[in-house]
Design a protein that fits this description.
homooctamer, about 240 residues, 5-stranded parallel beta sheet, 4-stranded mixed beta sheet, 9 strands, globular
């Protein structure tokens, strides 16, 4: 099968939406991923792949020797634009000074929520935001969150990642005046119902300013945070 | 119908469980409530009725002129024991010095959760506990809870009442070393699903020490808090 | 009961979060609403009440003769700040030139979604955003949405309000480069399950940039849109 | 066990319903599948098997050397009627000119929905319909669907296959005057709940003309589309 | 408010989809319904309103003195086209000879399902189909359905309406070679969950040819049956 | 409308299933109920109506002056067979010596479950079983059930009626060697979800011999208990 | 660990409930199963084990060389009573003439439901009932069920096993005058939700006489059918 | 990554909540578990790890040669405090005389619930409670529970562990005057829905004194029972 038999790549998406089409890796063969990625790189100089399984990751890294791949968040990208975002580890990518505008904070409640938080952070970073990652600030020790109040209040957009009861989003939203994008995670067991408890908790936040994305959707939250942090109309020279 | 046609009152319950059978008012006629209550008062000198509808309350107050009835929590009791618990308002009952042992705190997240919190407080009070009620300490302004830390840490048992995301239980449990009995309420709308969101949040609390009762079950939480606060083995002279 | 018996007003919220505490009218008595509102007006010069029932609305309008009340979205406010937002109808408030910064678009799928859309629009407007409302652009006639492409692409933040399958959010998000705050509504019947179908549709949006608030939570969406549209760091003189 | 111990083949189904009994492969042993298929071929000259696992497929292909088997949609058939439908790939079968009447379009939202779409297309094709397959026309880039408007408007029946929010069915139904059979797929994660989000979206379609089959039920949709496309009463010479 | 403030009528829908926009009465004021209906009648000579509440019905009948209104199915229409469909009762409308093409059967399982069946029958009838209604043929007395086998097998399209376990759709589909559009109804109690049991039963039909619409959506099923019964390509002269 | 327009009475049901068709009163007009009842009485000399609303009951009692109607279980019947079952109260009917064979026990957990238990008891009684009713033997005072062990062990069939956690069925089934038909009731609040908790508890009974009917379906349980108690093959002279 | 550390075998169960305690194999180690089985055989001369995994089955067959084990229904038993029930295959056990009283029919809708039907049949057979098994009589070809009407009407108790929409139970119950014990199975996919669709369909049966057991609980249904078929009071000489 | 990259250990938790932070093993790498455990042991002399997978357990036992690890409940601890709790088996730990105060009873309904019961028992024991474990006292043989009445009535706190219908908690609570902490387990199949049936049963307990923790959360219940059994204010010398 050729690419046209299974995909109609949306090359105008960058024009309309500010970033090229992103490849959702799940349910695609390694060949499909590489072929679609090649087309996108050719048009846009940059491609992002999420939910990449092991085989897909191997094929991707072999096809593109400048690929950046991160195992925990199952995310890869190639950046061949001017001043590219790059790095060998999540920390390196977040510290990379190029194309880093504004101030996004990604906070997560527990160590187990880290992969989703990294997906959010890397997405926002590749799209152009400066990003800081604050791990393990769950509500069971509220002082751990309060220790970061100034950092949180200085941010332009915040992503709050949490499983179980998902209370982190409400806690943070009560402290700041910027939008909080909440990501429920499937961390938990029993009546967490693979993230439903956190999802409902976040949807019912009694604190203002919280909106929610799908369970484990770090990518989506990262993109929204980037849009909030780097609005078209406030950028020096944008499309 | 006589009482025997519809009820088999469990007169040994006080002996086994520490307090006489309590009348669940819902689905009973005013006549049934008054007849069952008369029997229980005769045996035990004291009766508690919960979920009392308007007609039932009128009949109850007419039948027992020393009845204490509270409209918001839909709860009534008659206490003819020595040193009875009594009062015209929730505050008066909670301030009544007789039969008040130990230290139970009932905290609720919002003004709308107050009826359930009052049900919990009055129940524990009637059973023998000293009770303090702290309203409106939701997570959206976390400092409001933190202002009460010492009071919370001094308690022997805590009841945390909250709707919406129900995060109050986790927040408090992270601050204290006594059991926290969490009561989800049906306060909220949309995806709160009449209390399911709060219920799930509380069941998935990442803080230790939290157990949960049914949605809006202030009575149950009050009884458990009383049992924790006034254990049989630690009372001066108990049954 | 005095205010302190049932509420602890969070007077620092404007300082922390950019707008005074908002009164959630459901489950509060008319007296409570008026007393809390008085306190907030005294401190902040402005108060917003949502989900106001008929009795509460009557009491509110009687207590504050400069109250603006809107029946369809069950929302009221008093604005005594300099250059207040005011008007007799939703259209007048949205057209009021004072304190109107930036550009928020609120779009709704059907006529039945209008009350929620109005709640979102009035909220964002009172908080300081310029707001346009586009009704009845559901997906069954996709050209109706496409007719507004330029308007949508010019906005700084978009609120998409829809019941039933809730596809409007995805449709719009595929056309723009700003965040889309999606509000599922309880409009529909049968397997719409009071808004669950729309909620799930929006959470699973295949288009980037969509985050979701609770079912029928127009207020929440309006506040988030305002935060995106008028970021602290981009305002001429902010707190 | 003989066939009679576990099955009662319905040889009159073709007479009553227009096509022989179809074998649902799941939960049947390879031997059972081959034996039942042999009986059906003997009676009808044609058999279709759906949801065929690897072992079953191997046994089927070994038993019938003219078997057509397709791995992605896990479907196989043998056609020994006059002018049989046949082909080595999905494309070849769809292009096969024999027994191809009318005009069915099967459209799917994303590359991951392709297996279900192929199941629908092959089913309708084997039953006698001419079928065209349009992949990857999801709502995130609405122009991709609009590019096919004429093709859609020319069809006699349309199958719309989509996971996640399942909005494709509504989008197409708003453009055409023929029935749209919607197939929700289990593509997605988190709050897609294995296809529930798409199922609910399609059931609540605000566009007229949409009916829905079970999640991932491409076979069922293909059969219905064939019935709509080739009605008994409009066929040249039918039973 | 003028019509433009709350509605954007889709006057091209008849052109695209074969019938003018239908008014969903729920959640609209009597004034809105009458104004929208006037516009549609003016353009198309015909309007259909579903889910019409008492007040809306009164206003509609007062505004259009040739209105046909049916209380049980809460449906009304005005038909000013040439050879209009009309009648004082459901039976009269179904017997009206004008614009009656083909053969649609609407069968329902019990007397309580009748309103939904009538909605389906009237919708298909107004759109141009000849329709017969078969009541009370539930599965508890299977002979009642079998008595109608010939009538069912002669139809071009069948609507099967049932609550509770919803087995009627499977039973009929096993007897015929035309599409069966299944309408689950909310008839039942307890674990029928307002129609979910019937909905699931119909989605999981083991008989081929069944597709499903929303719970109680007689209108949707009627429209689909009409589209199957009177296909554009088989009509003598169509739009 | 005549009866034939809305109903096809199954007069052969007594022949096939041992008792005439029973009228489900919900969703039928008083006229329909009376007309259908007249036909059934004419054929069978006996009719049973369940879920009868107030208006329907008034019409029924007016139409048949020998009607027996019971308000709590919303059930009525007319019995004009030889040796009819009759009585002014539930107790009288159960004590009526005619047509009383075998031994059915109906036990219920609480006073609020009584209406459902009465529906079961009256149904089995009218159909021909001797029935005893044991109220208020919930698990919170297990001795109340154990006091009835001999009575339970002597029965030929048992109906266990309970709401909330529904544990009564398991408790009884562990004590006897006859089938226990469990009826979950909608008694409870919060997480009882209108009977789902009791339904699930009963379906998951760890004690053998428990089968379950729909929530609040006392009628169904009574009929099954009658069938178990008075089997066709063990009756002196049956059809 | 000794048996007492993990189990308290209920040796009085045969006395109370008519058959010795049955071992639920799931979640027990092979050693535990063999040890518990040994104790039960020693006391009662007979043991039944359900839901036996491969390892458990191997250990069981090795420990008891007269064990009867059936792979498809994952069930094993040892019968050392006088006139034992025995056989090498399901058919042989059902045909075994010893201890076979009365007449139970187990019918299942499809070939995939066979394992659950066999579990029911073997259970009832071991307990003392004569059992006939009728496979593959699903509703899609209603004549297949009707061909067995006489056999069904002659039975003393019927077990109806079905997945998907589970309509078989209603169909059969409409034809007979004995209790129908319905077993929903997890056969199906998508919106069958692992048996929920069949469970709900059966609970909402519009035909009288249907009660329901847990999903896939063939054992429970077999035991109940045996109790109905061989009532204590109708047996020649019983315990 | 260093510990600070993924965790912020809450060293003040023992001070606030009475016991050091407990490590939730799921979703953490063996290295992370060992590193975090080392830090906690260093500060507190004691660490507890729950939900430890095989690899994590191996690494833990290798890192700490005085580790106590129990495979069934997947729990490990190191205790280097004065008079440490220790043992090679669950029984040995429970029999260990050091740091054993008060009286906690952990009862479970079946053998399959044992792992969760052991998690509860070991947790309470390590924290300082004397604990007795009573297995296999399910409701199907109620005498098994009643045989332990004195033991239950002597306890200071009770943990009731049960799957399926979860009735054990209600049964026990009706017999005692101390709090009963109920743990629903995922033991069961079909409509047990991985523990939901037991969870709902326990939440709806008609007996007073029952509170509930998450499904399979033996750890949480053990901690709460310890807090009830050894209250701060009743201990000889506490922190």
């Amino acid at each position: 099968m050729s690419v046209d038999d299974y995909a109609q790549i949306d090359f105008e998406r960058e024009q309309r939406c500010g970033f090229p089409e992103v490849i959702y890796g799940e349910g695609k063969t390694p060949e499909q991923i590489v072929e679609i990625a090649s087309s996108i790189i050719e048009h846009h100089g940059c491609v992002l792949v999420t939910r990449l399984a092991d085989e897909g990751a191997a094929a991707f890294c072999q096809a593109f020797d400048d690929a950046c791949y991160f195992e925990l968040p199952r995310l890869a990208f190639v950046d061949r634009r001017e001043d590219p975002v790059t790095g060998q580890s999540v920390a390196e990518v977040l510290d990379c000074p190029d194309r880093a505008e504004g101030d996004v904070v990604v906070a997560c409640a527990g160590t187990s929520d880290l992969p989703v938080a990294q997906e959010a952070a890397l997405t926002a970073r590749l799209m152009g935001s400066r990003v800081r990652l604050i791990p393990d600030v769950g509500i069971a020790g509220v002082h751990r969150t309060l220790d970061h109040v100034e950092e949180l209040q200085a941010a332009r957009a915040i992503v709050a990642v949490a499983g179980m009861e998902g209370a982190l989003a409400s806690l943070i939203a009560g402290l700041v005046d910027v939008p909080v994008v909440a990501v429920p995670t499937s961390v938990g067991y029993g009546a967490s119902f693979d993230g439903i408890s956190a999802l409902l908790g976040m949807l019912n936040s009694c604190a203002g300013g919280v909106s929610v994305v799908n369970i484990d959707n770090g990518f989506g939250a990262g993109q929204i945070a980037d849009r909030i942090n780097r609005p078209r109309w406030a950028r020096p020279e944008t499309d």
